Amino acid sequence: MSAQSPGPERRALHGVLLLDKPAGLTSNQALQRVKRLFNARKAGHTGSLDPLATGMLPICFGEATKLTAFLLDARKVYRVSARLGVSTDTGDADGTPTAEVERSSLDTAQIDAALAAMIGPIEQTPPMYSALKRGGKPLYVLARQGIVVPRQPRTVQIFDARRLGFDWPMLEFSVRCSKGTYIRTFVEDLARALRTLGHVAGLRRLAVEPFEESGMIPLDSLSERGAVGLEALDAALLPVDSALPHWPRLVVSAEACRRLAQGQAVAAEPSWPEGRVRLYSPEECLVGIGEVSVRRELLPRRIFPGLGPWC
Length: 311
What we know:
- The chain has helices spanning 27-38, 68-72, 108-117, 139-144, 183-193, 219-228, 230-234, 254-261; strands at residues 15-21, 43-45, 54-61, 76-84, 86-88, 97-100, 120-124, 133-134, 137-138, 154-167, 170-177, 198-208, 217-218, 249-251, 266-267, 275-280, 286-292, 297-303.
- The chain has three domains: 15-73 and 211-241, Pseudouridine synthase (2-Layer Sandwich), CATH 3.30.2350.10; 76-208, Pseudouridine synthase (2-Layer Sandwich); 247-307, PUA domain (Archaeosine Trna-guanine Transglycosylase, Chain: A, domain 4, Roll).
- The chain is of the alpha+beta class.
């Protein structure tokens, strides 16, 4: 038998794709499909969405994968459909109902007041059906075995929460929140404040700052682009630095580029602000991410040699 011929060589792409993830796929399954479509060598997503959830899943290619940690810290915006009166073991519609209560006499004023009371820093206990690990095992693995372990509450920030619609038992609302916020836990806590039960019936992530909803591309549309050709797919990619539009932008000398690429600090100019900055070569090529220290040194934090040559 002849050896099987290798497939086409994976491409070194650099950029960010705002995928509109469909329901029914894990974030990793969506990532792998996109990676195959683009025939990309390296890609990663920034912040998982449950299979039930749809919406924005930023996918970083090549050097942009070095920005995933910064996007994980970003604020998120969700549209939530909550089913009141019924709780499930997972906190969402994929779980098994565990309890049910009769119809409540809730009105919109009570709901609005409860949502307003949850704006600000709140304490959340991570659900058992989550990817947090205990003893090297994700909590959801233990939960499926019927094992419940203590979880430490943690503080998250709710920046905005407002009702969009209500017709018992369905409540629609939007929420803008910090990283690490569990929407399932938010819905359960909200239902408790309303003296009822509840679970997530539907969830859509509308935005991951700084990216807005209008930039999302559905998986089906990507497949259509792929049928046209790789150039049509590549046109969907945003530049690497699109993830950091509000960071100060510094143009550094060719010599500074060379030293930063070697992991060396360079002297900061008097006009440069302290903190994290985007670094560009004299040719306007993105060099990486730096930080101007209180000692007035420019320190390399993430360098992007794949975007060169610039040194």
